[in-house]
Amino acid sequence: MKPTVAPFPTARLRRTRASAALRNLVRENNLTVDDLIWPVFVREGENVSEPIASMPGVYRQSIDNVVKSAKDAQALGIPVICLFPYTDPSLKTEDCAEAWNPNNLTNRAIIAIKEAAPDIAVMTDVALDPYNINGHDGFVENGEIINDRTVEALVKMTLAQAHAGADIIGPSDMMDGRISAMRTGLESEGFQNVAILSYSAKYASGFYGPFRDAVGASGALKGDKKTYQMDPGNTDEALRLVERDLMEGADMVMIKPGLAYLDICHRIKQTFGSPTFAYQVSGEYAMIKAAGQNGWVDEEKVMLESLLAFKRAGCDGILSYFAPAVAKILNG
Ligand code: PBG
Fold it and tell me: What ipTM was reported for this prediction?
Protein backbone atom coordinates (compact mmCIF):
# COMPACT_ATOMS: atom_id res chain seq x y z
CA MET A 1 0.00 0.00 0.00
CA LYS A 2 1.24 3.48 -0.92
CA PRO A 3 1.81 5.78 2.05
CA THR A 4 -0.53 8.79 2.01
CA VAL A 5 1.39 12.00 1.85
CA ALA A 6 -0.37 15.27 2.61
CA PRO A 7 -0.14 17.75 -0.26
CA PHE A 8 2.44 20.44 0.39
CA PRO A 9 1.91 22.85 2.15
CA THR A 10 -0.54 21.23 4.52
CA ALA A 11 -1.85 24.40 6.08
CA ARG A 12 -1.85 27.62 4.06
CA LEU A 13 -2.20 30.23 6.77
CA ARG A 14 -1.94 32.93 4.11
CA ARG A 15 -5.41 31.97 2.86
CA THR A 16 -7.21 33.99 5.53
CA ARG A 17 -4.93 36.95 4.86
CA ALA A 18 -5.55 36.98 1.10
CA SER A 19 -8.32 39.61 1.00
CA ALA A 20 -9.59 42.43 3.18
CA ALA A 21 -12.88 40.55 3.57
CA LEU A 22 -11.16 37.47 5.00
CA ARG A 23 -8.82 39.53 7.14
CA ASN A 24 -11.78 41.43 8.59
CA LEU A 25 -13.64 38.16 9.16
CA VAL A 26 -10.92 36.49 11.21
CA ARG A 27 -9.57 39.52 13.10
CA GLU A 28 -9.52 38.68 16.81
CA ASN A 29 -9.31 42.19 18.27
CA ASN A 30 -10.73 45.52 17.22
CA LEU A 31 -10.38 49.05 18.44
CA THR A 32 -13.65 50.95 18.81
CA VAL A 33 -14.61 54.46 19.94
CA ASP A 34 -16.15 52.86 23.06
CA ASP A 35 -12.63 51.92 24.20
CA LEU A 36 -11.44 55.50 24.56
CA ILE A 37 -10.94 57.78 27.55
CA TRP A 38 -9.70 61.25 26.60
CA PRO A 39 -7.39 63.08 29.07
CA VAL A 40 -7.56 66.90 28.79
CA PHE A 41 -5.78 69.78 30.54
CA VAL A 42 -7.74 72.63 32.13
CA ARG A 43 -6.48 76.12 32.99
CA GLU A 44 -7.95 79.46 34.06
CA GLY A 45 -9.09 82.11 31.60
CA GLU A 46 -11.59 82.61 28.84
CA ASN A 47 -11.37 81.24 25.33
CA VAL A 48 -7.79 80.06 25.90
CA SER A 49 -6.20 77.08 24.15
CA GLU A 50 -2.53 77.16 24.97
CA PRO A 51 -0.30 74.68 23.09
CA ILE A 52 1.95 72.33 25.09
CA ALA A 53 5.36 72.24 23.40
CA SER A 54 6.21 68.63 24.26
CA MET A 55 2.74 67.36 23.26
CA PRO A 56 1.96 68.70 19.76
CA GLY A 57 -1.81 68.88 19.19
CA VAL A 58 -2.62 68.95 22.94
CA TYR A 59 -3.68 72.18 24.67
CA ARG A 60 -4.28 73.63 28.09
CA GLN A 61 -7.82 74.93 27.73
CA SER A 62 -9.94 77.32 29.74
CA ILE A 63 -13.19 75.83 31.05
CA ASP A 64 -15.32 77.26 28.19
CA ASN A 65 -13.06 75.58 25.64
CA VAL A 66 -12.90 72.33 27.61
CA VAL A 67 -16.70 72.31 27.53
CA LYS A 68 -16.57 72.64 23.73
CA SER A 69 -14.10 69.74 23.62
CA ALA A 70 -16.41 67.66 25.82
CA LYS A 71 -19.34 68.35 23.48
CA ASP A 72 -17.21 67.37 20.47
CA ALA A 73 -16.08 64.21 22.26
CA GLN A 74 -19.68 63.35 23.15
CA ALA A 75 -20.69 63.83 19.50
CA LEU A 76 -17.85 61.52 18.44
CA GLY A 77 -19.13 58.87 20.87
CA ILE A 78 -16.11 58.97 23.22
CA PRO A 79 -17.53 57.63 26.52
CA VAL A 80 -15.25 59.36 29.04
CA ILE A 81 -13.29 62.59 29.36
CA CYS A 82 -10.64 62.86 32.09
CA LEU A 83 -9.64 66.20 33.63
CA PHE A 84 -6.17 67.36 34.69
CA PRO A 85 -5.75 70.85 36.13
CA TYR A 86 -2.93 73.28 35.39
CA THR A 87 -2.98 75.00 38.78
CA ASP A 88 -1.79 78.57 39.15
CA PRO A 89 1.57 78.39 41.01
CA SER A 90 0.23 80.84 43.62
CA LEU A 91 -2.32 78.17 44.69
CA LYS A 92 0.31 75.49 45.32
CA THR A 93 0.94 75.14 49.06
CA GLU A 94 2.38 72.68 51.53
CA ASP A 95 -1.10 71.86 52.91
CA CYS A 96 -2.54 71.41 49.36
CA ALA A 97 -5.89 72.90 50.48
CA GLU A 98 -6.81 73.87 46.91
CA ALA A 99 -7.19 70.13 46.17
CA TRP A 100 -10.54 69.94 47.99
CA ASN A 101 -11.75 73.47 47.30
CA PRO A 102 -15.28 72.96 45.86
CA ASN A 103 -14.57 75.88 43.51
CA ASN A 104 -11.19 74.74 42.23
CA LEU A 105 -10.55 74.50 38.52
CA THR A 106 -11.34 70.79 38.24
CA ASN A 107 -14.60 71.05 40.17
CA ARG A 108 -15.81 74.06 38.17
CA ALA A 109 -14.92 72.20 34.96
CA ILE A 110 -16.87 69.09 36.10
CA ILE A 111 -19.98 71.18 36.81
CA ALA A 112 -19.74 72.97 33.44
CA ILE A 113 -19.23 69.75 31.46
CA LYS A 114 -22.03 67.85 33.20
CA GLU A 115 -24.39 70.70 32.35
CA ALA A 116 -23.35 71.06 28.69
CA ALA A 117 -22.59 67.43 27.78
CA PRO A 118 -24.50 65.19 30.19
CA ASP A 119 -23.92 61.98 28.24
CA ILE A 120 -20.16 61.92 28.48
CA ALA A 121 -18.83 60.51 31.76
CA VAL A 122 -16.37 62.74 33.60
CA MET A 123 -13.34 61.15 35.21
CA THR A 124 -10.99 62.94 37.61
CA ASP A 125 -7.46 62.47 38.84
CA VAL A 126 -6.96 62.18 42.60
CA ALA A 127 -3.45 63.03 43.81
CA LEU A 128 -2.00 66.08 45.49
CA ASP A 129 0.70 66.90 42.90
CA PRO A 130 -1.14 69.70 41.04
CA TYR A 131 -1.61 71.53 44.36
CA ASN A 132 1.57 70.59 46.20
CA ILE A 133 4.43 73.07 46.43
CA ASN A 134 6.75 70.02 46.40
CA GLY A 135 5.19 68.52 43.25
CA HIS A 136 4.61 65.22 45.09
CA ASP A 137 1.39 63.18 45.10
CA GLY A 138 1.36 63.15 48.91
CA PHE A 139 2.24 65.40 51.84
CA VAL A 140 5.95 65.77 52.49
CA GLU A 141 7.26 65.74 56.07
CA ASN A 142 11.01 65.82 56.69
CA GLY A 143 11.62 64.71 53.12
CA GLU A 144 9.26 61.73 53.40
CA ILE A 145 5.94 61.20 51.62
CA ILE A 146 3.45 60.62 54.43
CA ASN A 147 0.85 57.95 53.68
CA ASP A 148 -2.08 58.13 56.12
CA ARG A 149 -2.45 61.89 56.37
CA THR A 150 -2.32 62.02 52.56
CA VAL A 151 -5.13 59.46 52.35
CA GLU A 152 -7.36 61.67 54.54
CA ALA A 153 -6.75 64.58 52.17
CA LEU A 154 -7.43 62.40 49.11
CA VAL A 155 -10.83 61.47 50.57
CA LYS A 156 -11.72 65.16 50.94
CA MET A 157 -10.59 65.74 47.34
CA THR A 158 -12.65 62.76 46.14
CA LEU A 159 -15.78 63.98 47.91
CA ALA A 160 -15.43 67.49 46.49
CA GLN A 161 -15.23 65.98 42.99
CA ALA A 162 -18.21 63.70 43.63
CA HIS A 163 -20.26 66.68 44.85
CA ALA A 164 -19.34 68.53 41.63
CA GLY A 165 -20.74 65.59 39.63
CA ALA A 166 -17.76 63.37 38.76
CA ASP A 167 -18.76 59.94 37.43
CA ILE A 168 -15.43 58.17 37.80
CA ILE A 169 -12.76 58.89 40.41
CA GLY A 170 -9.20 58.10 39.32
CA PRO A 171 -6.78 57.83 42.25
CA SER A 172 -3.28 58.18 40.76
CA ASP A 173 -1.38 58.77 44.01
CA MET A 174 -0.26 55.19 44.88
CA MET A 175 -0.75 55.64 48.65
CA ASP A 176 -1.75 52.51 50.61
CA GLY A 177 -5.34 52.23 51.84
CA ARG A 178 -6.73 54.98 49.63
CA ILE A 179 -9.31 52.92 47.78
CA SER A 180 -11.13 51.68 50.88
CA ALA A 181 -10.97 55.14 52.45
CA MET A 182 -12.43 56.74 49.30
CA ARG A 183 -15.08 54.06 48.88
CA THR A 184 -16.15 54.45 52.50
CA GLY A 185 -16.30 58.22 52.13
CA LEU A 186 -18.33 57.99 48.91
CA GLU A 187 -20.81 55.51 50.40
CA SER A 188 -21.26 57.57 53.55
CA GLU A 189 -22.19 60.65 51.50
CA GLY A 190 -24.62 58.80 49.24
CA PHE A 191 -22.40 58.47 46.17
CA GLN A 192 -23.02 54.75 45.68
CA ASN A 193 -22.83 55.07 41.91
CA VAL A 194 -19.63 57.06 41.67
CA ALA A 195 -17.12 54.56 40.28
CA ILE A 196 -13.44 54.19 41.11
CA LEU A 197 -10.94 53.48 38.34
CA SER A 198 -7.77 52.93 40.34
CA TYR A 199 -4.32 53.64 38.95
CA SER A 200 -3.36 50.33 40.60
CA ALA A 201 -0.11 49.49 38.82
CA LYS A 202 1.51 52.85 38.29
CA TYR A 203 5.23 52.73 37.64
CA ALA A 204 7.88 55.34 38.49
CA SER A 205 8.39 56.17 34.83
CA GLY A 206 10.36 58.49 32.59
CA PHE A 207 7.41 58.46 30.20
CA TYR A 208 5.51 61.07 32.29
CA GLY A 209 7.92 63.90 31.35
CA PRO A 210 5.69 65.88 28.95
CA PHE A 211 2.68 65.57 31.33
CA ARG A 212 4.62 67.20 34.14
CA ASP A 213 5.33 70.11 31.75
CA ALA A 214 1.65 70.22 30.82
CA VAL A 215 0.47 70.59 34.43
CA GLY A 216 3.44 72.77 35.42
CA ALA A 217 4.78 70.21 37.92
CA SER A 218 8.24 69.49 36.48
CA GLY A 219 9.90 72.56 38.04
CA ALA A 220 8.15 71.97 41.36
CA LEU A 221 9.01 68.29 41.86
CA LYS A 222 11.69 67.72 44.48
CA GLY A 223 13.37 64.35 43.99
CA ASP A 224 11.51 61.43 42.42
CA LYS A 225 8.39 59.33 43.09
CA LYS A 226 10.12 56.00 43.67
CA THR A 227 8.91 55.54 47.27
CA TYR A 228 5.29 55.29 46.10
CA GLN A 229 5.23 54.51 42.38
CA MET A 230 6.28 51.00 41.28
CA ASP A 231 9.72 49.81 40.30
CA PRO A 232 9.78 49.07 36.54
CA GLY A 233 11.44 45.71 37.26
CA ASN A 234 8.41 44.26 39.04
CA THR A 235 5.47 42.17 37.85
CA ASP A 236 4.12 40.17 40.82
CA GLU A 237 3.79 43.38 42.82
CA ALA A 238 1.41 44.72 40.16
CA LEU A 239 -0.84 41.70 40.71
CA ARG A 240 -0.80 42.23 44.48
CA LEU A 241 -1.72 45.89 43.99
CA VAL A 242 -4.63 45.06 41.71
CA GLU A 243 -5.91 42.33 44.02
CA ARG A 244 -5.70 44.72 46.98
CA ASP A 245 -7.49 47.54 45.12
CA LEU A 246 -10.29 45.23 43.95
CA MET A 247 -10.75 43.94 47.51
CA GLU A 248 -10.90 47.55 48.74
CA GLY A 249 -13.69 48.42 46.29
CA ALA A 250 -12.10 49.55 43.02
CA ASP A 251 -14.49 48.97 40.09
CA MET A 252 -11.84 49.16 37.40
CA VAL A 253 -8.05 49.07 37.41
CA MET A 254 -5.35 50.71 35.35
CA ILE A 255 -1.80 49.99 34.27
CA LYS A 256 0.41 53.00 33.57
CA PRO A 257 2.40 53.64 31.39
CA GLY A 258 1.01 51.51 28.59
CA LEU A 259 3.11 50.25 25.72
CA ALA A 260 6.20 49.35 27.77
CA TYR A 261 3.95 47.42 30.22
CA LEU A 262 1.77 45.24 27.98
CA ASP A 263 2.95 42.13 29.82
CA ILE A 264 1.45 43.59 33.00
CA CYS A 265 -1.85 44.39 31.22
CA HIS A 266 -2.04 40.83 29.94
CA ARG A 267 -1.27 39.18 33.27
CA ILE A 268 -3.71 41.38 35.19
CA LYS A 269 -6.58 40.73 32.78
CA GLN A 270 -5.86 36.98 32.73
CA THR A 271 -5.66 36.77 36.51
CA PHE A 272 -8.59 38.93 37.62
CA GLY A 273 -10.88 39.36 34.61
CA SER A 274 -11.94 42.74 35.97
CA PRO A 275 -12.35 45.86 33.79
CA THR A 276 -8.75 46.72 32.91
CA PHE A 277 -7.40 49.90 31.36
CA ALA A 278 -4.03 51.18 30.21
CA TYR A 279 -2.83 54.76 30.09
CA GLN A 280 -0.94 55.61 26.92
CA VAL A 281 0.93 58.38 28.70
CA SER A 282 2.32 61.70 27.57
CA GLY A 283 5.79 60.35 26.67
CA GLU A 284 4.29 57.63 24.48
CA TYR A 285 2.15 60.24 22.73
CA ALA A 286 5.14 62.58 22.31
CA MET A 287 7.31 59.84 20.78
CA ILE A 288 4.71 58.89 18.18
CA LYS A 289 4.03 62.56 17.36
CA ALA A 290 7.71 63.45 17.06
CA ALA A 291 8.54 60.51 14.81
CA GLY A 292 5.43 61.23 12.74
CA GLN A 293 6.26 64.91 12.34
CA ASN A 294 9.76 63.99 11.18
CA GLY A 295 8.33 61.60 8.61
CA TRP A 296 10.11 58.69 10.30
CA VAL A 297 6.91 56.72 10.88
CA ASP A 298 3.38 57.02 9.55
CA GLU A 299 1.73 58.68 12.57
CA GLU A 300 -1.78 57.44 11.85
CA LYS A 301 -0.73 53.83 11.36
CA VAL A 302 1.46 53.77 14.46
CA MET A 303 -1.23 55.46 16.55
CA LEU A 304 -3.87 52.87 15.57
CA GLU A 305 -1.45 49.95 15.87
CA SER A 306 -0.28 51.00 19.33
CA LEU A 307 -3.87 51.31 20.57
CA LEU A 308 -4.89 47.97 19.08
CA ALA A 309 -1.96 46.40 20.96
CA PHE A 310 -3.68 47.30 24.25
CA LYS A 311 -6.83 45.48 23.15
CA ARG A 312 -4.78 42.44 22.16
CA ALA A 313 -3.08 42.47 25.57
CA GLY A 314 -6.54 42.24 27.17
CA CYS A 315 -7.38 45.84 28.02
CA ASP A 316 -11.00 46.96 27.92
CA GLY A 317 -10.01 50.50 27.07
CA ILE A 318 -7.23 53.05 26.87
CA LEU A 319 -6.66 56.56 28.16
CA SER A 320 -5.11 58.32 25.17
CA TYR A 321 -4.41 61.87 24.05
CA PHE A 322 -5.13 60.53 20.55
CA ALA A 323 -8.77 59.79 21.48
CA PRO A 324 -10.51 62.41 19.26
CA ALA A 325 -8.18 61.80 16.31
CA VAL A 326 -8.80 58.06 16.58
CA ALA A 327 -12.54 58.49 16.99
CA LYS A 328 -12.71 60.58 13.81
CA ILE A 329 -10.90 57.85 11.86
CA LEU A 330 -12.98 55.01 13.33
CA ASN A 331 -16.24 56.89 12.70
CA GLY A 332 -15.17 57.28 9.07
C1 PBG B 1 -0.28 62.65 38.74
C2 PBG B 1 -0.33 62.03 37.40
C3 PBG B 1 0.73 61.86 36.51
C4 PBG B 1 0.17 61.39 35.32
C5 PBG B 1 -1.19 61.24 35.54
N6 PBG B 1 -1.50 61.61 36.84
C7 PBG B 1 2.16 62.21 36.62
C8 PBG B 1 2.98 61.66 37.68
O9 PBG B 1 2.64 60.72 38.38
O10 PBG B 1 4.07 62.23 37.87
C11 PBG B 1 0.94 61.13 34.05
C12 PBG B 1 0.14 61.10 32.79
C13 PBG B 1 0.95 61.22 31.53
O14 PBG B 1 2.20 61.20 31.54
O15 PBG B 1 0.32 61.32 30.47
N16 PBG B 1 -0.37 61.89 39.85
Answer: 0.96
